[in-house]
Each structure stands twice: as C-alpha cells, then as structure tokens.
Queue: 4 jobs
Job 1
Amino acid sequence: MSIRVARQDGIAVVTLDRPEKHNALDLADARALTGVWRDLRTDESVRAAVVTGAGGRAFCTGIDRAAAEAEDAVPQPHAPFAIEDPLLSIGPKSCDLWVPVVAAVEGMACGGAFYLLSEVEFLVATEESAFFDPHTSYGMVGAYEAMGMAQRMPFGEVARMALMGAAERISGRRAYETGLVSELAPVGGALAAALECARVLARHPATAVQGTVRAVWAAKEAARNQAMAQAPPLIALGNLPPRQQAALFRERGRGAFRTR
C-alpha cells in the first residue's frame, strides 16, 4: 500500500508514498486513504493528524491516470445527474473525521490533490511549493477541485488557477499571501513545522478541539454542499471524450508554464 500511517504522542502522520509517481493516487490508494480517515475516527489515542507526501518533489498530483485506465477506469452513470469519482472521499471531512488535520506541502500539489487539501484545517508549505489545476488544459471541467478551493482562496485567485490550467503555477509565497497557506517553512521543513502545530493541538482537550473544528466547518458547509451538488452535470456536459482527454494529457510535457 502506498499510504503510510505513523502514530506517536497523540499525532498520526499520514504519508502519500509514491514519490516515483509524484504521489499520484491509484484507485487502491484512494480507497486506502478513505480507510485511514475512517479508522482515525475511533482511535482515541490520536488527537491531531498531519498529511504529507514523500520525496519532496510533490505533495500529490491527483489521480494516477495511467493506473486508472489500466484498472478499466470507474464505470459512470449514463445520466449527467450523478458521477462516480474515486477521489470524493479521500478527504477527512468527507469521512466525518473531526480530529484536526494539518497538511505539510513540499513541491507540487495539483488537480485531485485539492480534494484532500480543501478538507484539512490549514496548510504549511515552502516558497518552492507549486499549486495548480490542469483540468482545463486536458479538456476537463475543474468542478469539485475549484469548488473546494474556493472555500480557501479569494474568488479571483481560485478562478485564475482553475482557468489557466497547466499554463500557470501558484508559488508557495503567493499561496501564503492570498491565505491558502498559513505558514511558510524552509525547503524540507514543511513536515517539521506542521508537526509543531500538531503537537500544540494534541495537548489541548480533544473534545474542545474537535468541537471547534466542527464549528468552523459548519460556517461554510451549506455553501460548499450546494455548490458541489452542481458538479456532476457540469462535468458530464463540459468534459471532452476520454480519448481526446488522453491525447491532450500525453502532450502535457510539451508546453511551458509560468509561476507567480
């Protein structure tokens, strides 16, 4: 399994461990990550969690398209009112986990990684981190990803990121300036900084912390849920056929991108 979990001193460190694939998730990884969050709900020894990616080059680059295609993808409903998305439950809130989760981001975080990042309490990153959403470049609607990140970023910033696709990357510095990232750490130091925060959280009474997490999320749940209910038909109507998506994806290394 490519998802590692280490527990110590009241903190669970969840590591996406496929550095050779930029920590992209195959379908088994997605199911395993869902299982991790669900297991932590009933582990009284865990009072805070940190999620990170192995290798330093990427936090996560979303779904592993090659693996998904090899596994014959995910069967989809014939009507545009529902969608089977293997990443919809990889975030802690989707699994009803209210233990606070901090993300430690080194390197790239893009596309499907936002399902996860949009459901943590806050992010620690480095200036060299890069955030982007390549969906439009590949003929795909960036719906769930953009909707989730719209809860964390100013409208103009998330709209630009979603629309510019693979042509532009948001630096860790810019992400910090706009509020997506709460703390900048030195290169290689995001995990240590996130763990320092998690240790503080783990020292506080667990019920008070989790109740506060629940209260903060309640403040924006209604808008988020209403937005995401619109995602299936938008994706069904706006996505190019899979073969055309694949052709664009194969050309991804040919274009340049800019960082801001």
Note: The chain has one domain: 3-186+225-259.
Job 2
Amino acid sequence: MGTTGHTPVDEAPQVVAEWTNRLIEDLDWSEAERGRAYLLLTETLHAVRDYLTVDEAADLAAQLPLIMRGIYYTGWNPSATPVHPRSKTAFLGRVAGRFQREPLDDAERAVATVFDLLRRKVSMGELDHVSHAMRGPLQELWA
C-alpha cells in the first residue's frame, strides 16, 4: 500500500488499531474481541456526540485524529441533537443495546473505559467542556 504523503491519512489505520488495542487491554478482553472493542468505541463516540449540542460536538470532533473524527461523524443527524432523555441510564442502554449477540458484562465499566481512553487522547480543557455538558450521574463516568 502506498502512502499519500499526508501523515494523518497514512497513519489512520494505526490510530484505529492503537485505540482498539488500548480498549482490549484496559477491559481485559481477548484479541478475538477486537470487533467488540471497535463497536464499543464507535457506539460510545456516537452516544457522546448525540448528547452534545452541535457546537459542543464539533469542538470535540476537532480534537480527534482524522480517522476517529470520521467514525465520530458517521451517521450523525445534527438536527436531532442533543437527544432526550439524556440520563446515564439512557446513555448506557443505548451503548449496551448494540451488543445483542454478546451483551456487555458491565456497560458502565465499558463506557468509562472509553471515556478514560478519550481522556488520554483529547485535551483536558475539551473533556472538561464535554463532561460538564453531560447530566449529573453521567458525569461520574468521566471521573
């Protein structure tokens, strides 16, 4: 495979692998669960995006690597955000609902692990804005 000479594009597959590997490691999942880790990452990013206002969602996206920004925006309908209800239960239910064949053992831990990954990859200032945009109990998952 050739390179484009544009580093963010050339490194995109490695970024997805790095983020997915980190989730597998942090959740003590097996390599065979790589697809589940990717689904968890995708669904959590989408849920975060949809809980934010359009401006807040765009501000977070600006902090993400190119490929993660594309994943984040996939399927977005800005006119339908922020979604309601915006409770912790609804958030966790939305993410967990995508794991029909192999349910998440602990959706709260899984989502908190993605939030921890974001904490390592996105500026603290931006994450403060995002976590404060979330409602009370949901903010606890960012801690």
Note: The chain has a mean pLDDT of 90.
Job 3
Amino acid sequence: MIVYGIITLLIIVVYFVFSIKAGKRYDIVIANFKDQYPLMFMAPVSLYIIDNLKIMERFYSQIAKIQQKMISLYGNRTALQHTRMYVAQLLSTVMVCLLGSFIFTLVSNGDQTIFFVGIIFTVLIPYAMISRLASQERERKQKILTELPEVVNKIILLVNAGETVQQALIRCVTSTKDPNSPLIRELTETVNKMVSNEPFHQVLNDLSKKCGIQEISIFTTTILLNYRKGGNDLILALRDLSHELWEKRKSISKTKGEEASSKLVFPLILIFVAVMIIVGYPALTIM
C-alpha cells in the first residue's frame, strides 16, 4: 500500500515539474485545437514529453498509420499537427488511467484486482481510441462514395446543358449546402482554388490525394483526360463512371443494412433471456 502511495505522489510531482518546464511554450498550438480534442489541460505536459523523448521519431512506423488517417480526415497541410495532438491525447489518456489505477488501488487498501483492472483499461482505452479513428476514416470514405454518384449526375446534366466542367463543379457546390457532407467540403475547397486561378489539373490532383479514395481518383482522371475534348467523349466517360458509382453505392447500402441487422442480434438475445427468466421463474418457484 505504501508503494502505491509513493508511486502516486511521484506521478503527480513529475506531472507538475513537466508542467512548469513546458510553461507557455505550447499555448498557441493548444489554442488551435482546444475544441477538437479532450484532456487539453494535460496537453502541455504531453507535448513536452513527446518533444523531449522524441516519440514521433522513435515510433515513426506506428505513428505513420495514425498520420495516414489524419491526412484522409484533415488533408496534407494540417495532418502532422493533428497527428501530434492525437498522440498527445493518447499519452494524456494513458497518464490519467495510470494515475487513476494507483489512486483507486490506494483508496481500496492495496486491492490488486482494482490495480490490474486499471492497467487493463490503460491498454484498452487507447486501443479503442485508435479503432474509433479508423472507423471515422471509414465512415468518411463511405459518405463520399455515397454522395459522389449524385455529383457526377449533376455534372453530366450541366455539361449537357452547355456549361464547362469548371462551371459545373462550381454550380454543384453552390447548389448543395450540407455542412455535414465531406465530399461537398472537399469540392468547396477545390472550387476556391479554381477561383484563385490555380491550375485545373493541379486542383483535381490535390482533391484526389486528399480524399485518398480510388473512385475519386478515377473521377478526377476521367475529367482530366476528357474535359479538353468536351462533347460526347466526356459525357460517355462520366456516364460509365456514374453507373459504376451507383453500383458501389448499392453495395455500401447493402453492407450497412447487414451491419445494422447484426448489431440487433445481441439485444434480441438479451430480450429473449429476460423473457425466459420472467416466464420460467414462477414455474421454478412452484416446483
């Protein structure tokens, strides 16, 4: 029990020492991300540890996987900053879980069970956070794939009506105002670059890289190969692509339906067990 008390005191002292050393060095960084990540009050200490122990460099192969997801979610420009803050969040979570494990063990008079449960949570919670990040990336890709066929159809109609591809993209963005649409957000950024007179091929290549989805790459490549020709070549290419995208959308919808039905299995089992207990208990008491 004394050992747990000493370790708890040591963790608290080390935290305050690092907090003093970190000072206000990371205030600007934290201000930029204060509404996006929890445990921001521990961020200065976590960032100080990351910088001094060179965690980003030493565990590059593991952190690179997180950075790849950040590129998909936030783009190349801010991916490194988001990755750094996310690693800081993971480190803060581990410190809180460790400190909580020692404190609760100390309060329970050195109960080893509580300590081991706390250690298990210390391992599982960061793993769950990384899994949640992967699911966010997957959901974003599925939303983009779900919305892309409608955008392609609008472009086909607008080009058929005599507008250029650039004008059609601008019309798609201005006519669709959905703040929760990841595809529209990406297209809005693309249109803003076009309006700023950036090269059209470079803008579409940036869109392809940022989304990191094969279907978006096919979409941008199809436009780049055919938009100069215009006419029937572009329309036919976009129609073929639209057909493939609608099939992909049907597949995603089917998969989501199967996932939803599988998630209902466990609650139905619980309800069945509860009903069996309610019905069977009076019979057992009579016997």
Note: The radius of gyration is 26 Å.
Job 4
Amino acid sequence: MRRMFKQWDIQMMVIPALIFVFVFSYIPMYGVLMAFQDYSIYKGFLHSPWVGFKHFEMFFNAPEFWTIMRNTLVISLLKLFIGFPAPIILALMLNEVRKASFKRVVQTISYLPHFLSWVIVSGFVVSLLSTDNGSINILLQSVHLIKEPINFLAIPEYFWSILVTTGIWKEIGFGSIVYLAAIAGVDPHIYEAASIDGASRLKQIINITVPSIIPVIVIFMILAIGNLLSAGFEDILLLATNPVLRDVSDVLDTYVYRIGIQNSRYSYATAAGLFKAVISVGMLTLANLVARRSGNSLW
C-alpha cells in the first residue's frame, strides 16, 4: 500500500482501465443467471422461472453441437499452429535485416492491416476472390491453371484456408511488435561472443535469440490456449455469408449470436456462451500449470 501511494500518479493512469473492465466485464456477469432460467425480457431476472441445467442439456443434445465444436476446434487449432508462430518468424526475420530503411518499410506494410476493420478486410478478400474480375481468378486463368473462374467463397473445402490466411495477413505485423521488443532486450555482447566462436547467424538465432524470448512466447501461448474456443466472430461472420458454408463456418461465437440475438433465445445462447467460458478458464488454468514447470507462467 505504501508503494502504491508513492506511485499515486502512475496508479491514477490505471483507474480508467479498471473502470472499463469493471463496467463491461464484471457487471455483465450478472447476466449468466439467464442460463439457468427461462428468461423473459418482460419478467426480468427476478421473476423469470428457474429451470436448472435445462438449456445446457438442450445445447449438448442439439443436432448441430458436434458440428459447431468440430469447426471451433479445427479453426482454433489452425490459427494456433499456423497463426501463432507467424509473428515470431517475422520478428526473427526483421531482426536480421541490417538496412534500416527497408526494415521500416516492411514493418509499416505488415502493421497496416491490423488497423483496418474486418469489414474492410473482408470486402478486400471478397473482391480479390470474386469470379467477376477477381485478381486471383484472373491470375490463375492467365497462367492457364484454371479455365473458368472459381467461386472460392462458395466452396466449403477452401473456407478454412481462406479464413486462417486472412487472419495471419491481418495480424502478423502487429503481433511481431512484442517479439521484436523482446529480441531488442537481448544483450548484444552474447552475439559478439558467439560470432567470435564461429557461430553462424542461423545458430545464433536458434541458440541465443529464440531461448531469450521463450518467456514471452510461453505467456502468449498460455493466453492463446485459453482462447482456444474463441475461433473468431467478425471474420467468420463477414466471410461466411454464403449459406453453403454453414457446415464449416458455424462456431460457438457465431452460433450464440445467431441463436441469442437473431432468434431471441437468450437463455439457450447464454448457456452455450457460459459453457465456452468455463472450458476456456479451465484450459487457461491447465496451460498455466504446465508452463509453471518451466518457470514461466501468468501466475
């Protein structure tokens, strides 16, 4: 407490963030009561009848349950195994660039997509893959790989690849910032000593750079595992506009939105969302316990 009062000016800067989290993250938690009620907006929380785990049972027995879980896990795992290492690899590559002007240009170009909304990005992807003057179809036709334009966003087999690739392109630059900062903190004398000993640049990356940023990688890996059931919402909602893609695009978040908001089944949607939250907290805790053995963990 004494240290906090000595840092009162710094602590004051944290107060808006604490208020934001409290208002938008903690107060709405009262709404999970709907998962155990037949909630009616006219009766409210106090007068809606309690039904126990009825809506959870309905969700687990729903015909689309396994399809939703499969899509959620597959998309999340693809983003984890392909999307998670991508910023690390980019950061390692940028760290090896010696020409500062070229490095700044690459960083600016790779950072820019992060600041574009998914509405703009999805519009760009739809235009790129369009059968009417879409750049991808024109390119494939010009090199004689296809004869007729392909409607990529109407073929379920292509959707996961398009979704994951678009997500990586959008976030790879911004995600590399933290890793570049961690790499910048490595003592340059270690590289000099390794160079004198005859270590190549590749060996220096493997034996010095990567081990030095392992703590940062582990922390972000724990957070990524905790969000494993968050396969995405805006990107899927905007890219999977074709009903043909429903079987490969419907994940927990889009399902909750469709059932809860569009169909007004508030209690059922809350039960599905609460199921996701509980599983996510459990996976986060488990990942943290495993990471703690290596000496790097969130708590």
Note: The chain has one domain: 55-292.
